[in-house]
Amino acid sequence: MENKAIGFPEDHVIIGDDAFPLRPDLMKPFSKHGLSDEEKIFNYRTSRARRVSENAFGILAWRFRVFSKAIELKPDTIDRVILAACSLHNWLRKTSPGHYMPQNALDREDFNTGEVTPGQWRLHANTLRPVTSLGSNNPNRTAIQIRQQFMKYFTEENPLPWQWEKLGLKMP
Q1: Between β-strands 14-15 and 26-27, what pairing exists: parallel, antiparallel or unpaired?
Q2: What angle, rounded to 10 degrees, do the helices at 37-63 and 141-152 form?
């Protein structure tokens, strides 16, 4: 992504967690200490977005045990393993949805209250391993501005009806 080799759209971002550096194309939560209400909302909204990829990776690790530990293969071979697993995952979702991915497999959110019910994949130990820090903690000005724009969007332009109450905050 950093060298623009994959053709990622300029106006899109990937959501990461604290292990990742803040970059213009990679948003991460604010540090957990001394947060403003708006920063708490930003963290809540990005954690909701990150849940989508956590569900996808969790299902892959649950169904394809190769992802439950470090893969000790050549990088080129790892790429092929990942592509094969993703292809099989997509095919199984289409051809055997009830068996491959039962209704309770994914995290579910009540859109009226914001309450989350954990998916079945989370019950399986070692499905997702924590990532150690992957970059600098000194973001550039552009990355900071983009995060501020998202924070404004989440709090002023497109707030969720329950987000303030969910975090025990007063709506402005």
Answers
A1: parallel
A2: 100
Which pLDDT value is given to residue 115?
85
Token pair of 56, please? 């996808």
SS3 for 16?
A: coil
3-state SS track over 77-138: HHHHHHHHHHHHHHHHHHHCHHHHCCCCCCCEECCCCCCEECCHHHHCCCCCCCCCCCCCCC
What is the rounded CA–CA span in Å between residue 61 and residue 89? 11
Residue 53: count other Cβ atoms within 10 Å of its Cβ.
12
Phi, psi of 60 (to 5 degrees): -60, -45
The tokens describing 23, both together, are: 């970059």
The pLDDT of 43-71, averaged and rounded, is 90
The per-residue pLDDT of the chain, averaged, comes to 87
pLDDT of res. 126? 60
